[in-house]
Amino acid sequence: MRTRSGLLGAALGALLVPLLAWVPGTTATGAALRARATDPTPTSDTRFTAQPLPTYQTNGVVYAVEAVGNVVYVGGNFTKVRPPGAAPGTREVARRNMAAFNATTGALLPFSHAFRAPSYPIPSSGVYDKECSRGARAGTYTCDTVYEIRASHDRSRIFVGGDFQTVDGRVRGNVAAFRVSSGALTSFRVDRVYGRVRALVPSASRLYIGGQISQVSGRRRYKVAAVRTDNGALTSWAPRVNGYVIAMAITADQKRVIIGGDFDRVNGQLRRGVRAVSAATGANTAWSGNPLRGTNGGRRSYVTDLAVDRDTVYVATEGLGEHVFDGRLAINPTNGVVRWRNTCLGATWAIERVGSSLYTGSHAHDCHAVPGGFRETARHLLDKPGDEHYHRFQAEVVGSGAPRLLHWMPTTDGGIVGSLGPRDLTYSPTADVLWAGGEFTTVNGDPQQGLTRFGPARDPGVPSIAPEQPSAPLAVSDASGRVRVTWEATDDWDNATLGYSLLRGGTVVATRSATSSHDTPRPTMSFLDTGLTPGSRVGYRVVATDGAGVASAPSTATTVTVASGPDAYRRRVLADRPQLYWPFDDQADRVAGTLVPAGGGGRYTSGGVTRGVPGALQGVPDDTAVQLDGVLGMARGRSRTAAPSTFSVEVWFKGSGTGKIVGYGSSQTTLSSYADRHLYVDTDGRLVFGMYDGSRAPHVVRSGARVDDDRWHHAVATHGDAGTVLYLDGRRVAGDSTKRSTSAYAGSWQVGGDRLAGWPKEPAQRNYAGTVDELAVYLHQLSPETVAAHHDLGLGG
User: Fold this and answer.
1) pLDDT tens column, 93-116
2) How many C-alpha atoms does 290 have within 13 Å on its Cβ side?
3) How much of the chain is in helix, strand and coil states, percent to nearest 5?
């Protein structure tokens, strides 16, 4: 854990020794580094830090958390708790399904009660309700879980609901109450509740109960009921719900109870998953909308949690089926009209309103349609397992308009029951701390089971998470005595804006700041380092700093020989105004560096790419290329833009096989749905360039010579007013003079692979097995003279 104490001077001071070890250089003082690297000073984007506070853990799942005063009550399916940092099975303290903690310090409190239920034989199949646990005797299981904890209307008691039948040996069928002042079990008792209790909502005089209940006090009830808060006596309140009730809430005026869950009808009226009923009579109130779709038997959305404020009910949902809605809703509780809809994909199971923000626990993986959101993160089919990820916690600003995601990205693993991660949230205004319970076993990649909490970002005593280690910079010496350095912004889970220090040796030579959000394309920064000694070797690293002065680990070093003369090829390419230029001189990491920061860099796949192989350019000592294996190896653009209609794409390549060298594709994570503007080597070993022009078949032009001879070739393909032209090794080899219409879609440039199905002489292996170098893309057509000049300069001419 990195904290605010120590700040950047200490953090970077500790880094200077290893920095000096890898390349000669002078050392700036800690004070100088601190002054430069934090200029300008970034600020946190949200109320809470993404670095969790030290928190007790459980040996099972937490389903309920509730803050009352300076106490947080925790319920679930567990038998023991253990201190922060303790490994499973060590330093454990007995707490059966419920515990209490000091909301400010996190200390375990004496509150301790035993929730129990009968044991049943495990079926011969070995399958039983996964939310239950093994019984005390071998071959048995028991369902004694605490699912819900809610403070009474006057906050003098807490009501607890679940599967349990006794508390401390006293009969309390699925509902119990405890004094907040003493922690003692009260005499409150509801007679004979049959069925699991998942939801509780107290008013001044009634406790509303929801779940899978079928009877209370010997009277038939249809998933919901209400009892008196003083003695637990059943009332006449009896709406009829035809499915599982998971969440309930009461409006600020106490007139309506909001019921949420997996059902289709309330009091006979078709309403999927959520609706309001009268708190007095149980009759349906005005509810014009039916925002969720599906039926209990098929693809459907259902409600998992509810939160209310003065005039809005916030709804968390789960979706069963591909791309079934499982985001969040804001609904007017007086009439059921939807105020806004958050369409993030990834089931939401916890929701809590704090100030002007809504905090959620989910496994969001695609929020591309939400302001401040991100594209698909869980389906990187070309990446290794573990690269894909979910945003288990999110925060969004809510109000009268559509929500906007904030830059707050702590996360957990899926956990041990349903892979759902967080299951409940509660905010303690006394401590100004957000608590989260769930089935997770890690938080931000570190071991932490069942429970975590996040403190206020503005508190200097609260730990701040360090920015992620930046990728290695790209360094190219394109003229005598100077080096052009570019680097990509990194991530910080609770600061969108970071400061960056570029170090040559141990000396800070440049500072920048940049803002990036979630998984959107990251900005690229640049610096032109001049006055260097020709022929010397210099090395560069990047350090990122957050608004609290906490520094990242330094990036991997990039070293380069300072040129003694001009790099004529790259100077000419840059002079011809490329929109994108990847020289493929990257020495480490997965970022394909760019010499045109505005065009953005690329991202290599995790496998199939070998960096640092000899490049195509002659007379350039440090020129390297990347070798692709023809199976996984690719580089894909990070910036997603509209496919260009007028353009030139230029690349050097060599290989003995076939496949797609470069093209445009709609996906940056999987096989593209739309792809064209291809340069590929066909089954005859010839170079093909083509586009879709509105007809069913792609329009292609093709070289006469073979290019599968394992020798370097220079290719340029252009399209625009001058028609479609293919150049090979400096000469025009195919084309026509017709300017054609082009297919319109958003995507990025893809090197080494992507969709080729249905193209002429389509190779059996769509990915290119070979070496590529010096990719440049222009938003204009290069002239024949310019193409020839580039080719000749690349050969040292």
Assistant:
1) 999 999 999 999 999 999 999 999
2) 12
3) 5, 45, 50
Q: Which residues does residue 644 pair with via DSSP β-bridges, in sequence order?
A: none
Specify whether the backbone of 209 is left (phi greater than 0), alpha (psi in -120 to 50) or beta.
beta
Short-list 155, 133, 134, CA closest to 76? 133
Distance CA 756, CA 311 (A): 53
636 and 380 Cβ atoms separated by less than 8 Å: no
Place of tokens 């002065």: 549
> How many CA atoms lie less than 13 Å away from 620 in the CB half-sphere?
29
Distance CA 690, CA 702 (A): 9
List CB contacts of 178: < 8 A, sequence separation 6 or more: 111, 113, 157, 158, 160, 184, 185, 186
Burial class (CB in 10 A: 0-12, 13-18, 19+), 528: exposed
524 within 8 A of 594, measured Cβ to Cβ: yes
Instruction: State yes or no: pLDDT of 531 exceeds 50.
Output: yes
Rounded CA-CA distance 635/472 in Å is 16
Asked if residue 389 lies in contact with residue 493, where contact means CB atoms within 8 angstroms, the answer is no
| Domain limits, the chain | 1-44+463-563, 51-456, 567-794
The residue-averaged pLDDT of 607-626 equals 94
Class of domain 51-456: mainly beta
CA torsion, points 127, 129, 133, 138, in degrees to nearest 10? -30
- Answer with the residue of higher pLDDT: 128 or 64: 64
pLDDT band, very low/low/confident/very high, at 519 (cuts 50, 70, 90): low
Least confident of 69-83, 373-387, 431-445: 373-387
Residue-level pLDDT at 1: 35
Structure confidence at residue 37 (pLDDT): 41
Nearest one of 212, 153, 222, 164 to 189, comparing CA atoms: 164
**CA nearest to 624, candidates 548, 561, 680:** 561
Q: Which CATH architecture has domain 1-44+463-563?
A: Sandwich (2.60)
| Model confidence band, residue 694 (pLDDT cutoffs 50, 70, 90) | confident
Q: What is the CATH number of domain 567-794?
A: 2.60.120.200
CA distances from 541 to 465, 503, 532 (A): 21, 5, 17
Q: Is 467 helix (H, G, I), strand (E, B) or coil?
A: coil
Q: What is the mean pLDDT of the chain?
A: 90
Give every CB contact of residue 549 below 8 A, 6+ residues apart in sequence: 4, 7, 8, 11, 34, 38
The DSSP result for 487-509, as a single string, is EE----TT-SEEEEEEEETTEEE
